[in-house]
Structures are given as C-alpha cells and as structure tokens.
Specification:
six-stranded parallel β-sheet; Rossmann fold; alpha/beta; 12 helices; transferase; 44% helix; globular
C-alpha cells in the first residue's frame, strides 16, 4: 500500500506502535480500523486513514482506504497531520518509558504537535505506563490535559487519569476483544508458549518445569509472537525440549491458532487477550504491569513469578486449568461488553467533532 489518489473522505491519522513486527500491535490497528469503518458507516462519515508505521512490509492487509505513512519520513508525517481532521491512538501503551525515554519523547512530541495545530486527539482502548522517571509523568500529564477523550484499556490507566484530573475518560477494553475469533474446540492438550528474551536468564528452571508438563501429557509449542525479537528465544527452547516452533504468516492464522489450543503460557500481553477471547485458560509471567493488572481479574491465580519460579509450582498452576477456563469464559463476555461500550463512546465523540 502506498499513496492513494485524493478522496472526499474525512482523513484521520492513526498513531501507534505499528509496523514493528509485534502481532499484538498489528491486531490492535486492525481492530481499531474495523471499529472506525463501522462507526463511519453508522454515522455516514466516510473516513480515509493515514497510518503512521515503522516498516510497511510488516503491516497486514487492512480494511478501508488506507495510506501507510513511514515514520522515518518526517516531512510526509507532518504533511499528513496537517491535512487530517484528527488523530486516533488505537490500542497499546504508547505513553511509557520502559522501552526508553527517547521513545516516549518521540510520541509525546508528535501528539503535542497535533494538539498545537488544532487536531483533536483521542485514545481508544489504550493503557498508560509504566513510568520510571518523574519527568516522564510530567510530560504525559501535560499532553493528556489537552486530549479530548481517553477510552482506557484497564482500571489502572483510568485511575491514573482520574487521580490527576487529566481529560475526559472512561473504562473500555483492549480493541482486540472486538475481533471475531473462533471459540476453543481443541481436544488435544496443546500448550502454546510465548516467551521473550527474559526467559533466557531462567532457561534451566523453565525447561525443567516445561519438561515436567510434557511428562504430564502437555504438547508444547513455542510461538514467536514478535517476529523480530522472539524467534531466537522460541527456537532455543524448542530445540532443548524437542518441540515445534510456530511463526504466524498472517492475521487469519493468529486469530484461528488459539482455538486449537488447550492453554497458553506467555510473557506477552496480547496472547492472553487472544486466549481469553477463545475461552481457554492462560498463565502469565509478571514481567509487565499490564499483565499483572489483567491477571487481577482472575485474582492473580494465573500469574507466575519468573524470579522465584519453581518447576513444581508451574505444574501445580496448570492443574487448575478447568477452574480457570470457566472464569475465563465469564470474563471474556465482560471485556467484550466493555469494548463495545467504548466503541459507542468513540462514535459519539467523532459525531460531535466531525458530524
């Protein structure tokens, strides 16, 4: 996809961590675009989308009239922003400094510029943080005071917004909950395992625990969810445990894969969302505050500590699969209702500024 001929559609900029090889971010983009397409049809507001991306080749096919704008071309980005009617940040935790302070500065600078040139900014199904620096919090607070609407992904984000009296906000859910997925129907005990590089520091104890799971009858599969960062880790563990490695080639594969599993163990957030969508139990390591916050809906019963992991504890946790499965199916419906409510709020907001 590249430049398109001019249209009379309303140009919107979509901003996020898109085009970097992480399926979670690409699915968030897809879900946000589908929401906007639905809203546009409902309100008779035809949209044209200008999506800021890293590498266009890593972005899956998208619905609607889409132009991919490369972030390494700042003049094109600026021109796109000036011609737009607003900016939608769709999914993810764009405003955080755990990746780097430079990354946060980059995103806040672009969004602040959008505000300065009079473009309304709305966050849809987004999280905030973590923040490791006081300066980061100050930058984010300054930006958010001028944001028109923030539909929060989780309770922790909403609490931050309300505590600091920053902008109109309400509780939604991750946009990925709005993607249609097949419900789980797996009969074999397939366990999808999604690891990050942090797993290498605990490889011996992890492999011991996973080997025990194999002896208990689980069929392990190691999945590279981030195409660039996770593959080497997945291959390292798979070779050690004589298990297959799975690398997705498209969105349809991602969305159908989880229905074939009986459980998920993950160090990444979006495999947990997708597992919940499919109604299968999951267990996650406490490496990310958004994972900890998500696990709180299960009273933390599916949360594992990488630092203190014991092979026997890993096996014991997975024996609660039946109980977690029932809880997951109840929560799946709750998250979807929240996401649909946020979609309705987004529609009302867009109608108020564009209708």
């Amino acid at each position: 996809m590249g430049r398109m001929t001019p249209s009379r559609k309303i140009p919107l900029v979509l901003y996020g961590y898109y085009g970097f090889g992480n399926w979670g971010d690409e699915l968030s983009l897809l879900a946000t675009l589908r929401v906007l397409e639905d809203v546009g049809q409902e309100l008779s507001l035809p949209f044209a989308y200008r999506v800021i991306v890293g590498d266009p080749s890593l972005v899956p096919p998208l619905p609607g009239e889409v132009t991919l704008v490369e972030r390494r071309r700042p003049a094109w980005m600026l021109s796109t922003l000036l011609k737009s009617r607003g900016v939608v940040v769709g999914g993810g935790s764009l405003l955080q400094d755990a990746t780097s302070f430079r990354s946060l500065l980059y995103y806040t600078t672009f969004l602040s510029l959008a505000q300065r040139v009079g473009k309304p900014v709305v966050f849809f199904g987004c999280g905030l943080g973590p923040f490791q620096r006081e300066l980061s919090v100050k930058l984010v607070r300054k930006l958010l005071r001028r944001v028109r609407l923030f539909l929060a992904r989780d309770e922790v984000t909403l609490a931050f917004l309300e505590e600091h009296h920053l902008c109109p906000a309400s509780l939604g859910a991750d946009p990925v909950f709005l993607l249609e997925q097949e419900k789980a129907g797996a009969s074999s005990p397939r366990l999808g395992i999604f690891l990050r590089r942090e797993a290498l520091g605990r490889k011996e104890v992890l492999c011991e625990g996973l080997r025990k799971l194999q002896r208990e009858g689980w069929d392990l599969e190691f999945v590279a969810f981030h195409r660039g960062e996770d593959r080497e880790v997945a291959e390292s563990f798979a070779e050690h445990l004589h298990a297959p490695v799975y690398v997705f080639s498209g969105v349809s594969e991602v969305l159908s894969y989880f229905s074939e599993l009986s459980g998920v163990v993950s160090m990444r957030f979006h495999p947990l969302v997708l597992a919940t969508q499919s109604g299968i139990p999951w267990w996650a390591f406490d490496l990310d505050p958004k994972i900890v916050a998500f696990s709180a809906h299960w009273e933390g019963k599916n949360l594992l500590s990488l630092a203190t992991l014991d092979p026997a504890l890993l096996c014991a946790a997975l024996r609660d699969a039946a109980v977690l499965r029932e809880k997951t199916r109840v929560l799946r419906d709750m998250f979807r209702r929240r996401a649909l409510a946020a979609k309705g709020e987004l529609a009302r907001f867009l109608e108020s500024i564009l209708g």
